[in-house]
TrEMBL record:
Keywords of this entry: Cell membrane, Copper, Electron transport, Heme, Iron, Membrane, Metal-binding, Oxidoreductase, Respiratory chain, Translocase, Transmembrane, Transmembrane helix, Transport
Record GO terms (molecular function): cytochrome-c oxidase activity; heme binding; metal ion binding; oxidoreductase activity
Entries under SUPFAM superfamilies matching the protein: Cytochrome c oxidase subunit I-like
Domain Cytochrome oxidase subunit I profile residue range list: 14-515
Topological type in the membrane: Multi-pass membrane protein
Function comment: Cytochrome c oxidase is the component of the respiratory chain that catalyzes the reduction of oxygen to water. Subunits 1-3 form the functional core of the enzyme complex. CO I is the catalytic subunit of the enzyme. Electrons originating in cytochrome c are transferred via the copper A center of subunit 2 and heme A of subunit 1 to the bimetallic center formed by heme A3 and copper B.
Biological process (GO), any one: oxidative phosphorylation
Name of the protein: Cytochrome c oxidase subunit 1
EC number: 7.1.1.9
Gene that produces this protein: ctaD_1
Recorded family membership: Belongs to the heme-copper respiratory oxidase family.
Organism: Amantichitinum ursilacus
Annotated pathway: Energy metabolism; oxidative phosphorylation
């Protein structure tokens, strides 16, 4: 019985593999590359904003930089990171399956993702795009440079990767669960990916169609969004945010699934309120489709529509709050150990809570009118997407790293990195809440001198945050060669993935798995 890491070592065998574990590693390599490319753009942005004058790059270059940062980070890191890496690797293991339902489709989704990413980078290198990551009209249809078409088509193409991944997960969870593994015995990580997959399959086609409409209007002057041709620019915003607000939960729900596995493991307790947690996950996925209008409060919509979207936006906070309270209750009286995965999970709870509470400010009509075009929105978005999703992604990487590689990383450096990420992130983005409150507009490459102190603090925090991101890359790479060998279950985890070897064999389990009780209580038979 051979490990997936030792069988098929040649490049050709890796590039033609249908093993879900290898595909997850291919995704991890590509996603890490895109993360640091997008991060490099952010470094230049923060250097530019350290001084009030636009003295590092001109306005046009600045617009292209924050567009590149947003497009790469959203579509090529945040959305695919946890599902395509951790979900791909773990879902078959967690449900006692040998592989995903459609292994070839899984590999095809990686190639589609890679082609879309290369196309996007090509468009950026040819001269860039200056529309912002939202591709708002009329910028994307009338005023921007011709490279919009290349990038928009690349994002359109990448959407098929998300759809195929979501479809694969849905069928796998429905059809390939081990005997005895009923719905309410599933790990919350699996519940989170099931809900995310539903959003991917239902919402991504709307974005894809919207991207195609931009290309049609640019190439053929068909009046879709351009009012001079009889179109409606607000139609674009409705279509875009109908996808993009659920997309927030594409990034956050898998992160919640990761944290829901880490917290009970390191608190040595069962997750508190398991059924409520599962219902909350599905409730977030459903309500996420009903609140896109809160991104458009200043677009001229009717007062009644605005009030409806405002009310729904407050309501969607309820299932998120349930999860935070249940994590807290799980920690209560737990025998907690503060290993690196737990530090990242606790960091996620703190950052996500701050981001969620400040989201309520933006859900209020009167406050949103003042805040929506300021740095308050930038801070809120990053607290949810980066502080939350990236902290959970790194927590999941550390938690399952021994299972993936069969090696342990240096725990001390991992704890230092987790602390630096939490401190650096807050120093970077909390000043931006204050900047937004004071009225500093976002998307500007120069600003009034009275905002400089807070911007210098933000740029200083970004340098600490960058070290917090680089450290794991270094010590995890070191551990591949020099880390001590990991036991099958170093954290005393209770899921099925911990009942096989580290790294798992090609076939995942040596014997068919049969589950007799809740996976988080007693794992089933069939361990390697």
């Amino acid at each position: 019985m051979s490990s997936y890491l030792t069988e098929g070592p040649t490049l050709r065998q890796w590039l033609t593999t249908t093993d879900h574990k290898k595909v997850a590693i291919l995704y991890a390599i590509a996603i890490t590359l895109f993360f640091f490319i997008g991060g490099a753009a952010a470094v230049i942005i923060r250097l530019e904003l350290a001084t009030p004058q636009g003295d590092l790059v001109p306005a046009q270059t600045y617009n292209e930089l924050f567009t590149a940062h947003g497009v790469i980070m959203v579509w090529f890191f945040l959305i695919p990171s946890i599902p395509s890496v951790l979900g791909n690797f773990l879902i078959p293991l967690m449900i006692g399956a040998r592989d995903l339902a459609f292994p070839r489709l899984n590999l095809a989704s990686w190639y589609i993702y890679l082609i879309g990413g290369v196309g996007t980078l090509w468009g950026m290198l040819l001269g860039g795009v200056d529309t912002g990551w939202t591709f708002y009209t009329p910028f994307s249809t009338m005023f921007s440079n011709s490279h919009v078409i290349i990038v928009v088509l690349s994002v359109f193409f990448t959407g098929f990767s998300s759809i195929l991944t979501g479809l694969n997960f849905i069928v796998t969870i429905h059809r390939l669960r081990a005997p005895g593994l009923t719905w309410f015995k599933l790990p919350l990580f699996v519940w989170a990916h099931y809900a995310t997959s539903i959003i991917l399959v239902l919402a991504t086609p709307v974005l894809a169609m919207t991207m195609v409409l931009i290309v049609i209007e640019r190439l053929f002057q068909v009046g879709i969004f351009d009012p001079a041709l009889g179109g409606d620019p607000l139609l674009f915003q409705h279509l875009f945010w109908f996808y993009s607000h659920p997309a927030v939960y594409i990034m956050v729900l898998p992160a919640m699934g990761v944290v829901s596995e880490i917290i009970p493991t390191f608190a040595r307790r069962k997750i508190f309120g398991y059924r409520f947690m599962a219902y909350a996950i599905m409730g977030i996925a459903l309500l996420g489709f009903l609140v896109w209008g809160h991104h458009m409060f200043t677009s001229g919509m009717s007062m009644y529509a605005g009030m409806t979207f405002s009310l729904l936006s407050f309501f969607v906070a309820v299932p998120s709050a349930i999860k935070v309270f249940n994590w807290t209750a799980t920690l209560y009286k737990g025998s907690i150990t503060f290993d690196a995965p737990m530090l990242y999970a606790l960091g996620f709870i703190g950052l996500f809570t701050i981001g969620g509470l400040t989201g309520l400010f933006l859900a209020a009509l009167a406050l949103d009118v003042h805040l929506t075009h300021t740095y308050f929105v930038v801070a809120h978005f990053h607290y949810i997407m980066v502080g939350g999703a990236v902290a959970a992604y790194l927590g999941g990487i550390h938690f399952w790293w021994p299972k993936v590689t069969g090696r342990m990383y240096p725990e001390m450096w991992a704890r230092v990195a987790a602390a630096m990420l939490f401190f650096g992130f807050n120093l970077t983005f909390f000043p931006q809440y204050l900047l937004g409150y004071e009225g500093m507009p976002r998307r500007y490459h120069s600003y009034a001198p009275e905002y400089q102190l807070l911007n210098v603090l933000s740029s200083a925090g970004a340098s600490i945050l960058a070290i917090g991101y680089l450290l794991p890359l270094c010590y995890l790479a070191w551990s591949l060669f020099y880390g001590r060998h990991a036991p099958s279950n170093p954290w005393e985890g209770r899921g099925l993935e911990w009942k096989t070897l580290s790294p798992p064999p090609v076939e995942n389990f040596s014997n068919p798995v049969v589950v007799h009780s809740h996976v988080h209580e007693v794992a089933g038979e069939g361990a390697a």
